[in-house]
Design a protein that fits this description.
- This protein is of the alpha+beta class.
- The chain contains 61 helices and 46 strands.
- Strands 25-24-23-22-28-27-26 form a 7-stranded antiparallel β-sheet. The protein has a 7-stranded antiparallel β-sheet with strand order 43-42-41-40-46-45-44, with helices on one face.
- A hairpin with a 2-residue loop joins strand 2 and strand 3.
């Protein structure tokens, strides 16, 4: 029973305490005056009566009523019903008040001035029951009695009110009367635990809507701050009540203030969660709250701040809840679209709807918490139950361990209270207990069908409604309201009277006495056992979330374990990788623990070393995927096993499995140990009571037979039974049971102290491995126990007294373990009620336990070190290049798979990765060699390597190796040769060694100076590379001092240069190294003269050959071929040529980054050039680099203009200018320069200035050209005049990406197009009289290329696999925009080709003239001139445009320390990719193959050759790299130039040759450039794991040799199959499956080798076949159209018969290579007889060569080349004169066919001939093609040669 009202108060406005217009309230009277013992009087009520503040108002307001809620210190809620009415104040009272106030305030408040003022007065009723309506009626009655002056005295009414007593619950109803002719019925709820909500929940949903309320619901459960706003107080109270009602069965336990007074608003900034209501009046003050969710009831909005993240219900629950709620609140929604909607679909009445909504939330909680009772651990039954909730197991079984919402709810205070309230197994039950236990099955079956759910919810709603209104029929309320006249007369009416407190007190005392004498009302509480419902496991399994195909996996796990225990180790080893993969699944892990359990006998299982090893491995793998929560209980199941499995190490020394599985987070998690401890304690206590049934064990079996299911009794059921019996036991029995339980817990605590020391103390206790990241240092362990707070004090004390202040350095393993265990023991013992004596005993034991364990471990550690190490695969040595040396020897590592899936076996094929092996760092490469860890592919060798110079990114990673389960430190190394090596260091590699490895790698990747790169250090000792110090040790002092002087001079020069206005900007960029050439003739003077910075200072003066060297450079050879200026010996110019070769830059003074010789217009003198160059960036002024042989249009290249020069350049020349400034004069000279170029074009001179359409169409129509498709070739290919816009990104509407057709519709066309950068050309206006036109294009920035390349690498070689569709290969490729950049470059190039082909010259003038310009110019030449599509031509093109014209290879490739920051920008790679695209579209036009391009792409970054080092010819000369004489080579096997290497290789193997090469004459290519026509270059994606990159040929040969040697061992196994499995990404396809021609050539070679003949070079064979082929076709009478492209010389008439076949012939045993043909070129054919020339090639004597006469002759080279000594051989048999470089040389340099020789005559000495040789020694050999000039050692020798040749001729 409880009092209806505890206190009654009258509160009024306090006139005495007004502070500046802020009124206050005061309590006039309070009944009873004394506090009740059971409920103290709440303080501060007067604030709550007027939450917006006490104020006087000028006119009377209507009476108001609301209920505020206050919470006292014991968290009991008090309901304060406030009834407020307004009373008039007369002047006199006010005057008094003002007088007293006037002293303080200067002027009276304005309100007071009106005639009458009203002050508020409140009648307040304080109660612990929440009967809003009853309170409203009671207070209204009291007011009515006062206003209407009813006969009943107020004291009686109030006395009755305060003495009214009603039952709390039980569904009774009471009629009460207050003695004023009134009567009310109070119905009490049936079940006290269910909240009473009236219609507040339904109201809340109406005000805010479904989604908003769900947000608030989730926010309240996950402990966020919630603030309600409304202008009505009662609504605030209702909303808060409604929100609490839907949280049932959880109870809100934080701050709860439905109505917060304005004066207490600072409460809102409290850090704890709350639910608070505030009047909208204070809205502005709530604006700055950052983390509060604000629900505005009047506006229907919920505002969630940005920083707040609300976890929502897990799907599909959220969706289903929303659906059902909308069916309750808006039933019409479902049928809104029906053609014949049912007549009435009104929602239920508000009160019913309210219960339906609550039904939905009950149903929701039943689903959320189903099976929670199976996760309760009961750890004490007597004297009262102690229960813990096993959160991890609950989440694991629900498969929701990742779910944010559930995690937060389970960690919350509300759930902790839920467990302590509903945990006990023997108590009164309610609706929720029934629902969560007995209706789970029904809920699960219906959840998919909303209508069935709806029915269920209606049933629940009915129960809830019944609970609140047990007697719905009875509602006889009779309460008087104040009459109308009463309210009006109240104006004149007197004040609310002071009541007689004595009278009221008498009433109260009287009632109290009565109560004492009345018999106590005992309503027996119905306690019962709480049902548990079905266990969770079944639920989840039936949902089918167990993995599919797991049966097969479990089979594998079982078999493997069986093999291990039967000692079939080989079988086990084969299964191991599959088992480790299977153990990723939960089912397999559980299976493993069960299987292992079966092999344990009496807690022990002794294994041998290998068995132990495998078992530990599997345990580690199982534990590795356990989270620290261990939600599936796997670690818990393994815990007993790790202390069972062991191996004998020596006499009396045993190593247990636990010492090998300590590396897991789970062991350092306090929560894990707690839940393990509690579950063990529960099992022991259950056992205790199963035995104690009066010592009659048979009761157990009887019970089992009796129970329907026959299952074991759960601990909770036992506990409930024991709790029921408890009151019936005697005191002794009770004490005995308590003591037994306590000692059970105590013994478990000791057991666990041991267990924890096992798993926490490392095998090697000297190492401090314990306090890894997890740190046993963190004291807080979060669990669902709220006892911790109270015991925190004692706990801290207990282990501080143990350890003093050792916390500061927890380095000592033993101490930290002791502390961790102490903390654990304190916590669990306090929670499970262990006595203090026992606790102290434990604290003294723990250090001893730990110490003992450490001693045993030391012995184990000692012995385990003596074990023979596990056999690891032996390390394979890599084959090294000549001159390549190891910097760091083998470090054992694992190669981890990256994002490429081919090698991992995921896409079919064997899993080659992960592999186990070693990493080697050499001076040139980084090499991994090893074998796959999967034993089924174990005999393969995996190699991955890349040149160290191509390393672009290195980052540390930590890797978990699936085989060993240890987290290893690793490295991820990315190379720009599209390779990624992801390695994890083996545990045997010390971490400092890994660090040394990284340092060395960096040193090699970024040497101080280009001298440190492999191309220079090759062949020196590896030591030099690592320690630069030793390099200079034998330098003499002289050179050292000279270097110092040099540096000084150079710095002086530099200071000067920076001051001077026009200076070559590259001077500052020069690397500041010292060239070790010789004397430097700069004289140190104050003012350094410009000329003293010339090349003469760096080229040695003695080198008289320098000039002829410069002349021999690639550029010159090419200029002569193009007829762009001849260079006679005296370097004079011949006037009739339009262009000349200028030597103005021979000392590299005009432009550092240009070559020494440049082509400029004949009419421009050198002085002009020196001035013009200043207008261009880096001084790179326009020079001619190619001329179209047909139209004579020229191609020029330059850098973009300096910003200064732009405007001046495009100013019209006749602009008035008073004084011609310097800028003007240079721009005039520039115009002259361009004019000179234009005048050089024949088309310009012919058409006398201006070209019209008619003049040019003819040449245009005849242009020969070939588009990338047959379609384009017949079409008039013309070009769009508005090229600029098209290239700026608006595509032409052409289908094939070829140019569109409108160029000649325009009447005039410029002679010179300048392709310029759009950004630079702003402000230049086009002049209509000039003959050039500027085409602005958008050019790709170097930064763009750099970023694009990074993305391309990540796309082609991702570092880790991903299932994200946005990260797929094609998506990443598109994001990289690499293809778009290629498209842009190709598009510009095709445009330029087109313009040149129509007779206009083009000047490419972009950026600094060394990146995009170079790309465009090279591509244009490649497309326009077939010569550049041959080996020699392409080499020349690269040497000329890329090397001589100063593309900054070192800078762009970040080859040295200085350029490291600029990063890697593959401009040259982009060019090669463009060539590859063109090659794909025109496969017959190129002499070289795709492999040749890949080879260059690889080696231009590899630094193996010197070709692509340094930034310009100037730097190469300065270093002495440019003109290395061939004879100077230190080691002949080391090639310094990539071109020499390719030449040599090309002689040996056809790998670089394109068999489809069949060029058409003067062919201009126009490839398609649209992105859809471009293909991804396979260079980016292919990989050969068998041998690493195939671009270092020496290695290929060696590896094959090694393979052959090993293969020669006798093989006893039966017949071998001829078939060979070819794996993608492992084998090199070109090698394993060569194309047909290569195969034939190889067979031919091997056959020749077998027969001991010297094999012919493949090229000779090939050429022969080709020539016979051609002659054959010519002689054939009728044309045969064959579609084969092979070897086509003339596409229309060919007969393709592959003439290589072997036939018996008369020449001894030699096999004859005959070419089947009807005729031959040399003689009239005799049917069936081979021609004579083939006879020669057949005839090969056993001696390799027939040498009739041989010796040294000097031979004069071609134009401008020096005389060179060569070894000549006269061969009578073959009728040839051959020459070699030296006598030993096997490769012939050239052949003069004697058949072509016309005469041999004595010659005259020519310029440049060897000195001191008599004139008679010269003779000339005249052939049909040319004249050879020879010079013998002396005249005698010369005579001999002439005679020998003559006799050969006469013999023939």
């Amino acid at each position: 029973m409880a009092r209806l009202a505890d206190y009654f108060l009258v509160v009024s406005y306090d006139l005495d305490k007004r502070v500046e217009g802020e009124g206050q309230g005061r309590i006039l009277q309070r009944f009873p005056e004394k506090d009740w013992e059971d409920s103290p009087f709440p303080q501060g009520i007067e604030l709550f009566c007027q939450p917006s503040g006490w104020q006087l108002v000028p006119e009377r307001q209507p009476a108001s009523f609301f209920v505020a809620v206050l919470t006292d210190i014991n968290s009991e809620r008090h309901y304060c019903a406030c009834f407020t009415f307004w009373e008039g104040l007369d002047r006199s009272q006010l005057q008094k008040a003002e007088a007293s106030e006037a002293d303080e305030a200067d002027e009276a408040p304005a309100v007071v001035q009106s005639a009458q003022v009203f002050s508020p007065k409140s009648l307040v009723l304080v109660s612990r029951l929440d009967y809003t309506e009853v309170f409203r009626n009671c207070l209204g009655l009291i007011y009515t009695v006062h206003v209407d002056g009813l006969s009943a005295p107020l004291e009686t009414v109030i006395g009755n009110l305060l003495t009214c007593v009603i039952p709390i619950a039980g569904g009774s109803q009471r009629t009460i009367t207050l003695g004023a002719g009134d009567r009310q019925v109070i119905q009490t709820p049936i079940d006290d635990s269910l909240p009473v909500s009236g219609s507040s929940v339904a109201q809340l949903f109406r005000q805010l809507g479904i989604v908003n309320v769900l947000y608030l619901f989730c926010a309240a459960l996950t402990e966020h701050k919630i603030l309600f706003l409304s202008s009505s107080y009662q609504r605030l109270t209702d909303a808060c009540r409604g929100l609490l009602a839907i949280m049932f069965p959880l109870k809100y336990s934080f701050t709860y203030i439905p109505i917060l007074p304005g004066k207490l608003l600072e409460v809102l900034s409290t850090p704890t969660p709350f639910i608070i209501g505030v009047n909208s009046f204070f809205r502005s003050e709530t604006q700055e709250l950052l983390d509060v969710i604000i629900a505005d009831l009047d506006g229907g909005t919920v505002t969630i701040p940005e920083c707040v993240h609300i976890s929502l219900l897990p799907e599909p629950l959220l969706q289903q809840t929303q659906t059902v709620l909308s069916m309750v609140l808006d039933p019409e929604l479902e049928v809104a679209d029906h053609a014949f909607p049912p007549p009435s679909t009104q929602p239920s009445a508000l009160k019913i709807q309210d219960k339906e909504i609550r039904g939905v939330f009950l149903w929701l909680f039943a689903r959320l918490f189903q099976g929670y009772r199976w996760c309760l651990h009961i750890i004490r039954i007597h004297p009262e139950p102690v229960i813990r909730f096993h959160k991890a197991a609950f989440l694991g079984q629900r498969a929701l361990s990742e779910d944010d919402f559930l995690m937060k709810v389970l960690d919350g205070m509300a759930f902790a209270a839920f467990v302590s309230e509903r945990g006990p197994p023997y108590r009164a039950t309610d609706l929720f207990d029934d629902l969560v236990a007995n209706q789970v099955e029904r809920i699960r079956q219906e959840e998919a069908c909303p209508h069935k759910v709806m029915n269920h919810i209606k049933e629940l709603a009915e129960q809830l409604f019944k609970n609140e209104n047990p007697y719905p029929a009875v509602a006889m309320h009779k309460v008087q309201r104040p009459s109308e006249n009463g309210q009006t007369s109240a104006q004149k009416q007197s004040q609310f009277p002071m009541l007689d407190d004595v009278a009221v007190q008498l009433f109260i005392d009287h009632a109290a006495a009565k109560l004492k004498t009345a018999p106590p009302v005992v309503k027996a509480e119905l306690k019962a056992m709480v049902p548990s419902g079905p266990p969770l496991g079944d639920i989840v399994d039936r949902n089918g979330s167990v993995m599919a195909n797991s049966a097969r996996r479990l089979e594998v796990v079982r078999n493997c374990i069986t093999y291990i225990f039967e000692n079939k180790m080989l079988e086990a080893k084969k299964l191991m990788p599959a088992v480790l993969r299977a153990l990723k699944g939960r089912a397999a892990r559980i299976c493993l623990t069960q299987e292992l359990n079966q092999h344990v006998l009496q807690n022990r299982a002794v294994l041998d070393d290998q068995q132990f090893d495998y078992i530990v491995r599997m345990m580690n793998c199982t534990l590795q995927d356990c989270s620290h929560m261990d939600e599936h209980g796997i670690a818990a199941a393994l815990l007993p096993l790790v202390t069972a499995f062991c191996r004998k190490l020596g006499a009396g020394i045993t190593q247990f499995a636990y010492s090998c599985v300590q590396e897991h987070m789970v062991w350092t998690t306090m929560q894990f140990w707690e839940s393990m401890f509690y579950s063990d304690v529960q099992n022991h206590i259950r056992a205790l009571y199963l035995e104690t049934e009066d010592g009659e064990p048979q009761t157990n079996s009887e019970q089992q037979d009796g129970s329907a299911t026959g299952r074991e009794i759960s601990a909770l059921e036992l506990a409930s039974e024991q709790n029921r019996l408890w009151p019936t036991l005697s005191k002794e029995m009770q004490a005995e049971r308590v003591q037994k339980e306590e000692s059970t817990v105590f013994s478990q605590a000791i057991h666990y102290a041991n267990r924890m020391s096992y798993l926490l103390l490392p095998l090697d206790t000297s190492k401090n491995r314990l306090l890894r990241s997890s740190g046993l240092g963190d004291v807080e362990s979060v669990s669902n126990s709220y006892v911790t707070n109270s015991i925190a004090g004692s706990m801290a004390e207990s282990y501080d007294t143990e350890s003093g202040f050792e916390d500061a350095e927890s380095s000592d393993v033993a101490n930290s373990v002791v502390r961790f265990i102490n903390r654990f023991v304190d916590k669990v013992c306090n929670e499970s009620g262990v006595t203090n004596e026992h606790l102290k005993a434990l604290h003294t034991m723990i250090p001893d336990i730990v110490q003992m364990h450490i001693e045993t471990l030391d012995a184990v550690h000692r012995e385990s070190k003596r074990l023979p190490p596990i056999q690891k695969p032996k390390l394979l040595r890599p084959t090294l290049l000549p001159g390549e040396e190891l910097v760091m020897d083998a470090m054992r590592v694992h190669l981890i798979p990256d994002g490429r899936e081919e090698a991992t076996g995921l896409m079919g094929g064997p899993p080659l990765l992960p592999a186990e092996g070693a990493i080697f760092l050499t001076t040139y490469r980084l090499i991994f060699r090893g074998t796959p860890t999967d034993p089924l592919v174990g005999e393969q060798v995996v190699t991955r390597s890349f040149p160290i110079a191509s390393l672009t990114k290195e980052k540390r990673i930590s890797v978990t190796i699936p085989m060993d389960q240890f987290v290893q430190e690793g490295l991820q190394l990315r190379s720009c040769t599209f390779q990624l090596i992801k390695i994890a260091f083996d545990e045997e590699v010390a971490s400092d060694l890994a660090e040394v490895f990284r340092k060395h790698m960096h040193k090699l990747r970024y040497p101080q100076h280009v001298h440190g790169t492999f191309a220079f250090t090759v062949g020196q000792s590896g030591k030099l590379v690592v320690e630069h110090k030793t390099k200079d040790k034998n330098q003499s002092l002289k050179t050292l001092s000279k270097n110092l002087v040099k540096t000084a001079k150079r710095t002086i020069g530099r200071q000067y240069v920076t001051r001077k206005k026009y200076s070559p900007p590259t001077w500052e960029n020069r690397s500041s190294f010292q060239s070790e050439l010789d004397e430097d003739e700069i004289s140190v003077s104050e003012e350094v003269d410009q000329s003293s910075l010339t090349l003469s200072s760096t080229i040695r003066s003695s080198d008289r050959q320098t000039m002829s060297n410069v002349v021999e450079r690639a550029c010159c050879r090419d200029y002569q071929r193009l007829g762009l200026g001849t260079l006679s010996n005296s370097l004079t110019r011949s006037k009739n040529e339009p262009f000349r070769i200028s030597t103005v830059n021979r000392m590299y003074t005009v432009c550092r980054s240009y070559p020494g010789l440049l082509i400029v217009p004949q009419s421009i003198p050198d002085t002009t050039i020196q001035r013009i160059c200043r207008c261009y960036r880096q001084n790179r002024f326009p020079v001619v680099c190619w001329r179209n042989s047909r139209t004579k249009a020229v191609l020029l290249r330059s850098a973009g203009l300096h910003a200064k020069g732009v405007v001046g350049f495009f100013k019209s020349p006749n602009a008035p200018s008073a004084v011609p400034s310097q800028a003007d004069s240079t721009s005039l000279e520039q115009e002259k320069y361009l004019q000179a170029i234009i005048s050089s074009m024949p088309s310009y001179s012919e058409s006398s200035g201006r070209n019209t359409l008619s003049g040019f169409t003819s040449t245009h129509m005849s242009t020969s050209g070939k588009w990338g498709s047959i379609r384009g070739s017949g079409r008039l290919s013309a070009y769009n005049p508005d090229v600029g816009t098209r290239l700026a990104g608006k595509e032409s509407p052409q289908l094939n990406g070829g140019p569109s057709e409108a160029l000649f519709l325009r009447q005039q066309k410029a002679y010179l197009y300048i392709i310029g950068d759009k950004a630079q050309l702003k402000g230049g206006k086009q002049d209509s009289f000039q003959q050039w036109e500027v085409v602005p294009i958008e050019v790709c920035d170097v930064r763009q290329v750099k970023n694009s390349f990074k993305k391309l690498m990540k796309a082609c070689v991702p570092s880790s696999g991903t299932s994200d569709p946005n990260m797929s290969f094609l998506r990443c490729l598109e994001d990289s925009e690499w293809m778009a950049l290629l498209h842009r470059v190709l598009q510009v190039s095709v445009l330029v080709v087109e313009l040149l082909d129509t007779g206009s010259s083009v000047m490419v003038s972009l950026e600094d003239g060394w990146d995009v310009t170079t790309q465009v110019v090279s591509l244009v030449q490649l497309l326009s001139d077939p010569y550049y599509r041959t080996f020699d031509g392409f080499r020349l093109l690269v040497e000329k445009e890329w090397l001589s014209f100063g593309h900054r290879f070192s800078h762009r490739g970040a080859q040295t320390l200085g350029s490291q920051s600029s990063g890697f920008t593959p401009v040259f790679l982009q060019f090669l990719d463009c060539v590859h695209q063109i090659h794909l579209q025109f496969p017959m036009e190129f002499e070289f193959s795709q492999y040749y391009l890949k080879f260059l792409a690889y080696h231009y970054v590899s630094n193996r050759f010197r070709t692509f080092l340094l930034d310009s010819d100037y730097e190469r000369i300065e270093l002495g790299v440019l003109y290395e004489e061939k004879g100077e080579r230190k080691s002949p096997q080391v090639c310094k130039s990539v071109w020499d290497y390719i030449d040599r290789l090309n002689k040996k193997t056809p790998i670089f040759y394109n068999y489809m090469f069949a060029p058409e004459d003067e062919e201009v290519l126009r490839p398609y450039t649209f992105i859809s026509n471009l293909k991804v270059w396979d260079f980016y994606t292919e990989e050969t794991l068998s041998e690493g990159p195939s671009y270092d040929w020496e290695l290929r040969g060696r590896q094959e040799r090694v393979a052959e040697e090993t293969a020669e061992k006798p093989d006893s196994s039966g017949p071998k199959s001829q078939r060979h499995v070819v794996w993608p990404c492992y084998d090199s396809l070109s090698k394993v499956v060569p194309d047909a021609i290569t195969k034939l050539l190889q067979d031919l070679q091997s056959l020749e080798a077998e027969l001991g003949q010297t094999s012919e070079k493949w090229k000779d064979t090939w050429d022969k076949i080709k020539t016979t082929q051609r002659t054959e076709t010519k002689l054939e009478s009728k044309p045969s159209f064959s579609s084969s492209l092979l070897m086509s010389s003339n596409l229309s008439h060919q007969r393709r018969s592959q003439g290589v076949y072997l036939q018996e012939s008369s020449v001894g045993s030699s096999i004859n290579l005959a070419l089947e043909c009807e005729a031959s070129a040399t003689s009239t054919p005799v049917a069936g007889r081979p021609s004579t020339s083939t006879l020669y090639s057949q005839f090969q004597s056993t001696e390799s060569e027939n040498r009739s006469f041989e010796g040294i002759l000097f031979k004069k080279g071609a134009l401008l080349k020096p005389w060179k000594p060569r070894w000549f051989v006269l061969d009578k048999t073959k009728h040839q004169l051959r020459y070699y470089e030296t006598r030993q040389d096997k490769e012939c340099k050239g052949v003069i066919e004697l058949a072509d020789v016309e005469s041999v005559i004595p010659g005259t000495p020519a310029m440049g001939a060897p000195k001191n040789i008599e004139d008679k020694a010269f003779f000339d050999l005249k052939t049909t093609k040319r004249v050879y000039n020879f010079c013998a050692q002396d005249s005698l020798n010369a005579q001999l040669w002439m005679d020998s040749v003559q006799s050969c001729l006469s013999d023939a």
